[in-house]
Specification:
With 274 residues, this protein is an alpha/beta fold. The protein is built from 11 helices and 9 strands.
Length: 274
Amino acid sequence: MAKTALITGASQGIGKATVLELAKHGYDIVLVAREPERLETVAAEVRSLGQKAIVLPTDVRDSMQVEQMVKSAIAQTGQIDVLVNNAAIYYMGPVEDASLEDWHTIIDTNLWGYIHTIHALLPYFLQRKAGTIVNVVSIGGLDPIPYQVPYTTSKHALTGLTKSLRSELEPKGIHVCGIYPSFIRTELYERALFRGEDAKNRFEFMYKAFHSPVLETPEFVAKTLRNAIEHRKKDVLVGTANFWTAMFHVVPSVMKPIVRRVFGMKDSQRNLAQ
């Protein structure tokens, strides 16, 4: 019997790449995101690989929707073996320009979205005394990245969630893994929140950056993620994330000004001029 993975944020980027990577290696897939049309397109690719694909459009910010989605997923598949939490929204801009609504949008998706799926699926895993939870976090969950404060807040919370979950659930047969990519060549900017007087320039900057051939691909992250599942790895820094987080810890006095200058744009230039 094929194993089944439930993947959130499955319609594009790292989520889509993970769907296809696991399907290529014999997994049936439950695809979760808000846009049914995009999900169906990815599901068709899964089926072309000879694996089952179930599409369950869900807003992970809504706990009731998530509860119903998990019940439906178990009913239709008979068994969920792996949960991959991946849905996320990015923020870039001065922290003072983030409204409370912006904060809720980021935290409700990036943190509560993960909590909702874990809360809904955990009793099932505990009953089976088996299961894998993979949280796609970010280098932003390890390092102090300015001008992304709501985003990095959510990601630091996910780091704590992942590590403490593992500490408690490992003796109960449940594997918990954290995946920490750096910037990846995805469409994360599509639903990102850009704020401040430089909002348009920030979007253009990130659009160009996310299309750079220098950045690692979602497929590379997906392969790393699959390897982490198969070998029951705990915390995995993906590719160049190893370099950047090492630099943050070894020479923070060098890294912090550089990162402030890159992401601060006019704001950091104004501060330097004062």
